């Protein structure tokens, strides 16, 4: 499965029309949502619709993730029971505050995988609180399942008592820290959404700034934003050179029957190879 993180688009899980349209989206990750975009009285219906969508996985062109409800909501066990099945690539977990919360979810997921004979599902924790920001590195490095972290600006600002603006000063430290912690943990960082759907210039500037901080891509809520994020989060020269080294070294290692190896002192395995190959394949399109 292609491992690119330029765009992660949220699709309301209770909307059949949007779920159908998502089949043709060119986002790197299509994320069916059970959380913020779904009212409480629609959660059960959304789980059923998402479960059906996962069964028709071959109709979708992107990686398929599902965003559960938050650890503090008490709804995750029910969410996981319904969505951990064939057709799902990963789970976005909103409002992760600490490693303990993530490990509990991972344990439940692992148990369902064994029972249902599924391959390990990837995890993307979303950092949306002061506690989460402080613990980002620990969260990002706590499991091999974690492939990226997402920055959730709106709940973070609410948590620290700062009003949202397009250039919120209160979010700058957190927005800068998260990709540094993610990179130190060896995973990608996905920037927060741009809320103003009519301000395309603002979106472009926000993408450029996010990339300058080290983000690999952006969370989005509208299909029109996909092409912009893909253009502005295109791999840079150093990323391309690194991908070439990873592919070359890993292929040489597997020919020798070794598999996991190192590049410039850093451990790489099949996951890193897939990410690197996906990046290089992108350049040939």
* Broad structural category: alpha/beta
Number of E-state strands: 10
The outline comes out as: globular
Helix and strand element order: EHEHEHEHEHHEHHEHEHHEEH
Count of separate DSSP helical elements: 12
Mean pLDDT: 92
Main beta-sheet annotation? 8 strands, parallel, barrel
> What's the arrangement of strands in the largest beta sheet?
1-2-3-4-5-6-7-8
Based on CA atoms alone, the radius of gyration comes out at 18 Å
Terminal residue distance: 16 Å
Uncertain residue segments? none
Strand content: 15-25%
> Considering DSSP H and I runs of 4 or more, what fraction of the residues is helical?
40-55%
List the helices and strands and how they pair.
Blueprint: E1 7-12, H1 16-21, E2 29-33, H2 43-55, E3 63-67, H3 76-83, E4 90-93, H4 99-116, E5 122-127, H5 130-134, H6 136-140, E6 148-151, H7 153-160, H8 172-185, E7 188-191, H9 200-213, E8 217-220, H10 226-232, H11 237-255, E9 261-263, E10 266-268, H12 270-283
Parallel strand pairs: 1-2, 1-8, 2-3, 3-4, 4-5, 5-6, 6-7, 7-8
Antiparallel strand pairs: 9-10
């Amino acid at each position: 499965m292609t491992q690119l993180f330029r765009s992660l688009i949220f699709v309301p899980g209770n909307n059949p029309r949007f779920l159908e349209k998502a089949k043709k989206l060119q986002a790197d990750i299509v994320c069916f949502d059970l959380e913020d975009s779904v009212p409480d009285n629609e959660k059960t219906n959304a789980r059923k619709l998402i479960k059906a969508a996962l069964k028709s996985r071959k109709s979708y062109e992107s990686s398929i993730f599902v965003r559960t409800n938050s650890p503090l909501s008490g709804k995750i066990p029910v969410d996981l029971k319904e969505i951990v099945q064939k057709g799902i690539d990963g789970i976005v977990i909103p409002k992760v505050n600490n490693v303990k919360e993530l490990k509990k979810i991972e344990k439940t997921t692992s148990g369902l995988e064994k029972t249902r004979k599924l391959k390990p599902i990837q995890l993307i924790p979303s950092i949306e609180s002061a506690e989460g920001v402080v613990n980002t590195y620990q969260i990002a490095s706590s499991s091999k399942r974690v492939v990226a972290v997402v920055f959730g600006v709106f709940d973070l600002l609410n948590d620290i008592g700062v009003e949202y603006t397009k250039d919120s000063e209160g979010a700058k430290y957190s927005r800068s820290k998260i990709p540094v912690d993610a990179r130190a943990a060896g995973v990608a960082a996905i920037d927060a959404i741009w809320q103003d759907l009519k301000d395309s210039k603002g979106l472009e500037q926000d993408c450029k700034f996010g990339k300058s901080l080290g983000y690999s891509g952006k969370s989005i809520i509208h299909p029109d934003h996909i092409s912009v994020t893909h253009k502005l989060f295109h791999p840079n020269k150093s990323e391309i050179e690194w991908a070439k080294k990873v592919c070359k070294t890993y292929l040489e290692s597997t020919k020798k029957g070794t598999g996991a190896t190192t590049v410039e002192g850093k451990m790489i395995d099949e996951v890193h190879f897939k990410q690197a190959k996906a990046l290089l394949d992108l350049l040939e399109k």
